[in-house]
Design brief:
The complex is a heterodimer. By secondary structure, chain A is α+β, with helices and mostly antiparallel strands. Chain A contains 2 helices and 5 strands; from the N terminus they run E-E-E-H-E-E-H. Classes of the chains: A alpha+beta, B mainly alpha.
């Protein structure tokens, strides 16, 4: 696992990490999560640039909830997200691959047995 | 041809298989450099078009004929800014930066849609832009929701949802004018006359002259050819124009029973190329205004950055 400047949506590993840090006016990137209504979890909506958390929230409101798409917003500095890399995808997710018995459909139940 | 290293060949095969299976390519996946640069060019041009596109319409905000129309127009122009931001974010996932993209726009190294180099001479132009320009954009953009590159496709889904309001408000505006006084009707017709042909040019050069099309189709960035989408747009617009009580400025526009499509006149590609080269009516004005806005906003960006640094709430 690696931390990259933009783990959630960053370019392939090996990319120059400095690209996004070029100038002081190039504000950091934030990932935006929106809860569309009560009872649902926050889901990733997209990203934006902002100088700080407060401005990131304001920008997120203007950018991602112009049509009442949300009742709650999270903003997270993109650099703070740790992501699994697609390069190691197979090995990383492999442990779940050979365990079909974790699914209810793995089991055969006689006809006529209900509520199971 | 140089020999390709075995691991790169395997990566390329995995990329091809993902695209062929109609799955999406995501930012951290390996991708051919040409795929990456094609996407950066296309998404950047698209993003630039959204923010330059704010100018011709914003031109009419202070002179909107009613508070209702003014509120609608402000919401629309704000949407265009939002669309630009979605798209810049998508482009940045490919390894470019916001500053770099804006710099390339400001120095003319990346383009925006040539449609925005035409002036908005009357209030009816706001309606014609909504109906025709946004209508053409939607025809282009709906298939992009299935583009093989995930972040671009997701941005397009969001944009397409919002664009339909843009088109309908323009149509309603034109309908109101068309059913108004003779002068208002004439104003609506004049706007349609001026915007029709440039709107058809928005689909890009004819298929046999389009340099990037074949590769983009193979990569499933593009789903339909320029001419196919242009034909679809013409067929959609003809009955809509009739319902408006307005005519489309093309004497050769006629239903072709055999093809099941409308035939239409030939497009003046010389004009298209001239506007693209920078010789359109407003090229210089648009880019100068964009540059000036960026320069005059520098102190705001610096102040916000200084405030964030002082209060220790910066994202990194």
């Amino acid at each position: 696992m690696t931390t990259t400047p933009r783990p959630a949506e960053s370019r392939a590993s090996g990319a120059p990490a400095e690209a996004a840090d070029a100038r002081p006016t190039d504000w950091p990137l934030w990932e935006v999560f929106v809860r569309s209504r009560r009872g649902l979890s926050h889901t990733h909506a997209g990203s934006l640039h902002a100088p700080d958390a407060e401005m990131a929230l304001r920008n997120a409101r203007d950018l991602y909830t112009r049509r009442s798409e949300g009742v709650s917003l999270w903003v997270v500095p993109s650099a703070q997200i740790t992501a699994s890399s697609p390069d190691e995808k197979d090995a990383f997710f492999e442990p779940a691959g050979d365990k079909p018995y974790r699914h209810p459909t793995f089991y055969e139940i006689p006809e006529g047995v209900h509520h199971l | 041809m140089t020999t390709i290293a075995p691991e790169e060949a395997a990566q390329e095969a995995a990329f091809d298989a993902t695209v062929a299976a109609e799955e999406r390519i995501e930012p951290r996946d390996w991708m051919p450099e040409a795929y990456r640069s094609t996407l950066v060019r296309q998404i950047a041009q698209h993003a630039h078009s959204e923010i330059i596109g704010m100018q011709p319409e914003a031109n009419w905000i202070t002179r909107a004929p009613s508070l209702r129309r003014k509120a609608i127009l402000m919401a629309k122009v704000q949407d265009e800014a939002g669309h630009g931001l979605y798209l810049y974010s998508a482009a940045e996932t490919l390894g470019t930066s916001r500053d770099e993209l804006l710099d390339k726009l400001h120095t003319g190294r990346q383009k925006y849609s040539s449609i925005f180099n035409y002036p908005t001479l009357t209030w009816a132009d706001v309606g014609a832009i909504g109906w025709l320009v946004d209508g053409a954009a939607i025809t282009n953009q709906v298939p992009l929701c299935r583009c093989s590159y995930g972040p671009y496709a997701r941005a397009m889904v969001r944009i397409c949802k919002e664009e339909s309001f843009h088109q309908r408000q323009g149509y309603e505006l034109l309908l109101t004018l068309s059913r108004g006084t003779d002068a208002q009707h004439a104003m609506a017709q004049d706007a349609v006359n001026r915007w029709w042909w440039p709107s058809l040019m928005m689909f890009g050069p004819p298929d046999d002259e389009s340099s990037h099309s074949a590769q983009s189709m193979a990569w499933k960035i593009k789903r339909h050819s320029n001419d196919e989408l242009r034909q679809r747009f013409v067929d959609i617009c003809v009955p809509q124009a009739e319902a408006l009580g307005l005519t489309l400025p093309d004497p050769d526009l006629v239903w072709n029973e055999d093809r099941g499509h409308h035939d239409f006149g030939s497009i003046d590609w010389t004009e298209f190329r001239e506007v693209l080269k920078g010789n359109g009516p407003c090229n210089e004005q648009r880019i100068n205004r964009r540059r000036r806005a960026h320069e005059e906003g520098a102190w705001v960006r610096e102040a916000a950055a200084a405030h964030a640094a002082k209060h220790g709430k910066a994202g990194r």
